[in-house]
Amino acid sequence: MVFKAQLFALSGVQPSRQKVMVKGAVVKDDTWGDIKMRDGMMLLMMGSAEELPTVPTEEEQPMFVEDMTPEQLAAKMDLPPGLANLGNTCYINATIQCLKTVPELKEALVNLNCSSSCQFQMITECCVVPAVRDLFVSLDIVSNSFPPVVLLSVLDKFFPQFSEKNEDGIHYQQDANEFWTEVVRCLQRQLVATEADEAIASQGAVGFQRSFIDRYFAGQFAITMKCIECEDEPVTTTAESFYQFSCFIQKEVKYLHTGLQSRMQETITKHSTVLSRDAKFLKTCKLSRLPAYLTIQMVRFFYKEKEGVNAKILKDVKFPMSLDVFDLCSEEVKKKLTRMRDRFRKDDEVKAAQKAKSPVFQEKEKALNKMDKDEEEEEEKPVLFREPFSFPDDIGSNNSGYYELQAVLTHKGRSSVSGHYVAWTRKKGDEWVMFDDHRVSPVTAADVQKLSGGGDWHCAYVLLYGPRVLEREATQEEIAEMEAEELRIEEERRKEEERKNAPGNGPLARLYKERKEKERREKEGQEEMK
């Protein structure tokens, strides 16, 4: 070893990396063996002075997509977390992931002043809404999949239609659209307007609705009834609200728009006051109010009395990524939509002109753009201003008639109470995300368009369209207003935190108040029984 230390001083090769050989024999560290040293003897040393390559750590080792767990894939690709399946609860998971794509709904739930503890509440809807709110908040915080335990326990306690279990104690599969409708109904009853919303409404929003759902999800039909058999029968016009637009899948329906139109005009039989008997009437429906978020149900299930199941219509019905409902609107609404539609048309013309530039010019532009990207200091991107998508006097409406698909709830199987439900939501542009319970995967717009049906693959069951928003470069005044609004929101959040943390408003104090309130109600109930 002393000899190798001397070699290290001369060569810089560590003793542990030296291999010394004499006449083909290797010299050991602690002994020369049978080798006899003499003057002028030739020795051969092999070794490198460079550092040996280290074994790559688990983080540094290459990992293939097919070998990744859903959590690892989501972390690498910056995907949102999924929801764990607690036993046939995919219908809950898919519905929640679709509704979560509505930013205004998330904001309204966060601002909801309602305890997440339902044990002191008398109204059952008060339990569902905070459970949904807490689930939304949890999905924004966690990185791995999250189990919707609280929401499921609320359904078990207050909604018997969703609490049925088999002999093994596992929940039965349920119809996702029925659950969607129930959640929206609960939100409609409890998500009322805030003081700030009402202050804005008092400035001229004549069509203002107190319920958030009524503002952003509720549309309205103007229904006209005209008797075909008697011209003396007065024509009647009524208004009817809806939270879902139904697309009936008949034999001739191949496209979503055709299915929507099919029930806008039909012949029905009803009692005629003039003829004093049943007569044929022409029923015409026109959209008299467009909600910001249009929910469309693909009516794929019908009840088979013989088998006693909701059988599925597998017919292929194409749906667009961009939907225009202008021709389904009343004349009055069409006039109101014209202004914003003209602005969209001009914006589309400008973009089309830019795309239609000569090939030579496009190549030069690409080269210049590449040079700009290679520069160390890139120019700041312009601040974009999002034009309002609602009418000033009707908060939560759609002022153009243009919609963009932002979420799809699909079903795979042959019956609404069996099979599997999955959510597909838009991330940005043509980038989409598929939520198959806890498994979250990136997909494209082309993948989403394959969900139109026609086989045993995933079929679109509920479509959620959001408003098309016109974006343009903001002026200095608008930038200042946006910055001021951000400061105002931040200040309100700070004050709210201070209020919650103030003496007497902490968690223990709130729990004490809730218990006192419960005792008071129980006492009143006992007195009434006496």
From TrEMBL:
SUPFAM superfamilies: Cysteine proteinases, Ubiquitin-like. One of its GO terms (molecular function) is proteasome binding. It is an enzyme of class 3 (hydrolase). Its EC number is 3.4.19.12. Residues 1-46 form the Ubiquitin-like domain. Residues 485-501, 511-530 have a biased composition (Basic and acidic residues). Keywords: Hydrolase, Protease, Thiol protease, Ubl conjugation pathway. Coiled coil: none annotated. It catalyses: Thiol-dependent hydrolysis of ester, thioester, amide, peptide and isopeptide bonds formed by the C-terminal Gly of ubiquitin (a 76-residue protein attached to proteins as an intracellular targeting signal). The keyword Nucleotidyltransferase does not apply. Residues 481-530 are annotated as: Disordered. One of its GO terms (biological process) is proteasome-mediated ubiquitin-dependent protein catabolic process. The keyword Thylakoid does not apply. Residues 81-468 form the USP domain. Transmembrane segments: none annotated. Belongs to the peptidase C19 family. USP14/UBP6 subfamily. This is Ubiquitin carboxyl-terminal hydrolase.
